[in-house]
Amino acid sequence: MSTESCFNCHETMQRLNSYVDRELSDFELVExxxxxxxxxxxxxxxxxxxxxxxxxxxxxxxxxxPQELLQQILxxxxxx
Amino acid sequence: MDILVAPPASKRQVAPxxxxxxxxxxxxxxxxxxxxxxxxxxxxVAENIDALYRGALRMTxxxxxxxxxxxxxxxxxxxxxxxxxxGTNFKAWLFKIQTNLFRSRYRKQYNSPQSLDDTEEFYLYQxxxxxxxxxxxxxxxVLDKLGVEEVRxxxxxxPPAYRExxxxxxxxxxxxxxxAEILGVPVGTVMSRLHRGRQRLxxxxxxxxKESGVVx
Lengths: 80, 216
Fold this sequence. Notes:
The structure holds 2 protein chains of 2 kinds. By secondary structure, chain A is mainly alpha-helical. Chain A contains 5 helices and no strands. In chain A, α3 (26-38) packs across α4 (40-59). Chain B is elongated, with a radius of gyration of 19 Å.
């Protein structure tokens, strides 16, 4: 049976970035998760932040290095 | 170099479903090159060139300058490869070299006074998300409609110190510890730059969403 989280909304929001980034300690991670499970507004915040992170990950840098650059670097390494 | 110690997979597993779609783990969990004598530098160039290039492009904003920065990064890495510690993360090491190069070449731009004012918490979400009828997800819908151009501009609007923290963690998937090591700052600084960077990013995304007609 799950117990109530020891974090309130404010304490959870303070840790939201680290939670999204999977950087919390085991204890904090469990407590934040418990709070999110019981608090739809905070859970919505979490979902939104995950989506923003995914947006950055997928759309911020779609470019690939030009093929000529790779050839140029490999050539200059041979000369180095 | 302990930047390269990834948290055990078991510690990353307590996660609700939303996390899974992020698939953030691969970079830190990829095996590092085995040892220097057997290290295939050319293969490592091919493997990491896209990551370094996209990072360089978002930091310089210009393809020619990004190419030049990447080329110089690999040349330095090649010259100093004896300093690389086998068993550690080669990609993180390359990013550290590139970050230092960027800072020395673009010192003026990097250090120019930026308005680092804080913006409202969860800006985009606050303007689009809450108080909507159950079942609606207008904030999420807006995110889906934002294109590469809006996101790229929002990233490039960030002051360099925030931009590099966001790119390293969100795009490249480095941990806070690895990002701190690459940037040469404490983990707490990475966290605060990320926090502020993401706040500003949300504000810019909202502005570009309005500009492009995605929101009224």
